């Protein structure tokens, strides 16, 4: 409710003051609570009270006052100005509805009456409002994944290998969209198409590969060939899809024959181990034989060189002796005689007799001429030498020159 102004009643005796109290007296005099005279104050306006709140009826009356001039008199129809304003507002809102924003990981596919018109990149874009043009945003950077085989899906995971065996294979295909328009309009169900193409491609590749290669070290080759074949088929369909990776998650024989297959694999490993041991022994024996042969050949070559060099040395020494003999035959004969006697007497028992002035016979002990066998670890000892005094010698020994002359 609006506040009532009780300023007049408040100034009178017995009157009720307003919400801000009684107004001060305009002239001099005393206040109601104070006997002191008060200074007259100025007659300026007081602070106005806050406006009272409007009720719903008053607000509706004000709206009607704004609309009635546009509506015209009662029973006269709508005013043209109202119709134009409403139509202009509707058209403006319709035109503004064509603005849209394409995200950084998206492509916007614009269609005109349902037919593809263009593909827009990231950023703010505009198209004619519906139903003339429409836009569909497609994620083109995110990876999509399809799992094939594994679990209870035996029909999709059992495949025939190139050596007529059966392998239980499950794998994953990761792909992304490279052309949003082709992805939306060329293939009806892209995920089902990728799954069907992946299963067909991997069956074709596995059908050309041996089972042992798939189970051991040939998985990488199978994955690469499957990816290339899938990409070729999807490009032929013009699907707008890029195959990023094909990864084999598991490869094993069928469940019913796993124990037998493990036994065969163990036997194959044992055979490989035996073959490797045999090859190791073969390499060791062959290398040892080659080493012994090379050693024998080198020893023979060394002996040949030794014999040849010794023969050449003997021939050279004989030639030198021959030259010396031709120069001094007597001296050479004596030297040869002495060297020969030295070699002969060094290995035999001998008795040296001084024959000067000896007339009596010499009696030697019997063990002087007994042969002595040399010990195996020592050189043959020299024969004992017995020296007989000259008086005991029966006759003088011949001079070396005389002995040499007799030998000639």
CATH architecture of one domain: 2-Layer Sandwich
**SS-based structural class?**
alpha+beta
Q: Can you identify the CATH superfamily of one domain?
A: Band 7 domain
Determine the CATH topology of one domain.
Tetrahydropterin Synthase, Chain A
- Distance between the ends: 179 Å
Radius of gyration from the alpha-carbon trace, in angstroms = 67 Å
What is the helix fraction of residues, given as a range? 40-55%
Features:
408 residues; alpha+beta; Tetrahydropterin Synthase, Chain A; three-stranded antiparallel beta sheet; 11 helices; 13 strands; 18% strand
What does this structure look like?
This protein has 408 residues and is α+β, with helices and mostly antiparallel strands. Among the domains are: 59-96, no CATH class; 99-139, no CATH class; 144-253, Tetrahydropterin Synthase, Chain A. The chain is 45% helix and 18% strand. Strands 8, 9, 10 and 11 form a four-stranded antiparallel sheet that branches. It has a three-stranded antiparallel sheet with strand order 5-4-7. Helix 6 (190-206) crosses helix 8. It starts with 6 loop residues before the first helix and ends with a helix.
Q: Secondary structure elements and their pairing?
A:
Elements: H1 7-11, E1 29-30, E2 37-38, H2 56-71, H3 80-96, E3 99-102, E4 106-112, E5 115-120, E6 123-126, E7 133-139, E8 144-148, H4 154-157, E9 158-160, E10 166-177, H5 180-185, H6 190-206, H7 211-215, H8 219-237, E11 241-252, H9 258-327, H10 329-345, E12 350-353, E13 385-388, H11 400-407
Parallel strand pairs: 12-13
Antiparallel strand pairs: 1-2, 3-6, 4-5, 4-7, 8-10, 9-10, 10-11
Helix pairs in contact: 6-8, 9-10
């Amino acid at each position: 409710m609006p506040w009532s102004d009780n300023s007049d009643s408040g100034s009178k005796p017995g009157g009720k003051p307003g919400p801000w109290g009684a107004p001060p007296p305009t002239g001099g005099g005393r206040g109601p609570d104070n006997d002191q005279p008060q200074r007259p104050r100025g007659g300026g306006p007081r602070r106005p009270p806050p406006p009272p709140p409007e009720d719903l009826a008053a607000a509706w009356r004000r709206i009607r006052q704004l609309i009635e001039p546009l509506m015209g008199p009662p029973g006269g129809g709508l005013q043209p100005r109202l119709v134009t304003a409403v139509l202009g507002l509707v058209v403006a809102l319709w035109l503004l509805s064509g603005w849209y924003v394409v995200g950084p990981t998206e492509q916007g596919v614009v269609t005109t009456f349902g037919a593809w018109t263009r593909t827009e990149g990231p950023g703010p874009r505009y198209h004619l409002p519906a139903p003339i043009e429409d836009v569909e945003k497609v994620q083109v950077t995110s990876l999509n994944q399809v799992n094939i085989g594994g679990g209870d899906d035996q029909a999709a995971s059992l495949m025939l290998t190139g050596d007529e065996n059966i392998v239980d294979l499950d794998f994953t295909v990761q792909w992304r969209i490279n052309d949003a328009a082709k992805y939306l309009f060329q293939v009806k169900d892209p995920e089902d198409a990728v799954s069907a193409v992946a299963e067909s491609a991997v069956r074709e590749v596995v059908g050309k590969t041996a089972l042992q290669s798939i189970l051991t070290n040939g998985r990488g080759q199978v994955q690469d060939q499957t990816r290339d074949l899938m990409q070729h088929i999807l490009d032929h369909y013009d699907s707008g899809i890029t195959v990023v990776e094909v990864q084999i998650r598991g490869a094993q024989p069928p469940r019913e024959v796993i124990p037998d297959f493990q036994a065969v694999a163990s036997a194959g490993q044992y055979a490989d181990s035996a073959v490797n041991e045999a090859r190791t022994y073969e390499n060791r024996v062959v290398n040892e034989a080659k080493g012994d042969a090379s050693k024998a050949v080198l020893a023979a070559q060394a002996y040949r060189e030794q014999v040849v060099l010794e023969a050449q040395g003997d021939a050279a020494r004989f030639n030198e002796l021959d030259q010396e003999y031709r120069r001094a035959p007597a001296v050479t004969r004596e030297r040869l005689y002495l060297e020969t006697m030295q070699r002969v007497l060094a290995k035999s028992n001998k008795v040296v007799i001084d024959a000067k002035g000896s007339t009596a016979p010499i009696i030697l002990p019997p063990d002087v001429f007994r042969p002595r066998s040399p010990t195996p670890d020592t050189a043959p000892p020299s024969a004992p030498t017995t020296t007989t005094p000259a008086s005991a010698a029966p006759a003088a020994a011949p001079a070396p020159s005389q002995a040499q002359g007799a030998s000639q």
